[in-house]
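== Item description ==
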Amino acid sequence: MAFHGTFEHTLDAKNRLTLPAKFRTALAGKVFLVRSEDPCIAIYPGEAYEALATQALQGVNPLSKEGKRHRRRFYALTDDVELDGAGRVTLQAKHLEHAGISMREVVIAGAGDSLELWHPDTWSSYEAELTADGDA
């Protein structure tokens, strides 16, 4: 399933995010919370992320400096979690800090193979850049 669309959501008092209902089946089971290169958190279905990591690390010497760096990026900067019965995922402080989310409002943006969680203002600026570049 490809993830499309942009949604405005609110974290609850325990930093739990209820994911859009239309995506919950695709995210059933294990999901990975990944600190992206951009100031956002990506949410990948378990199998999709494992396949992505395997493909990205294929052919990289695991004992080389580059190989160790890539492995740490794919494994140390991620957390595997499961959605609770209400379709929620809990975001830890390190996730919120990485994405610059200091309030309850978040934007969930579809990114094809994943969903991304953004601070609303950061997303708004990024979306404006995409639109100005003609990419949207």
Notes: The longest strand covers residues 30-35. The first helix runs from residue 46 to 57. DSSP finds four helices and eight strands in the chain. The radius of gyration is 15 Å.
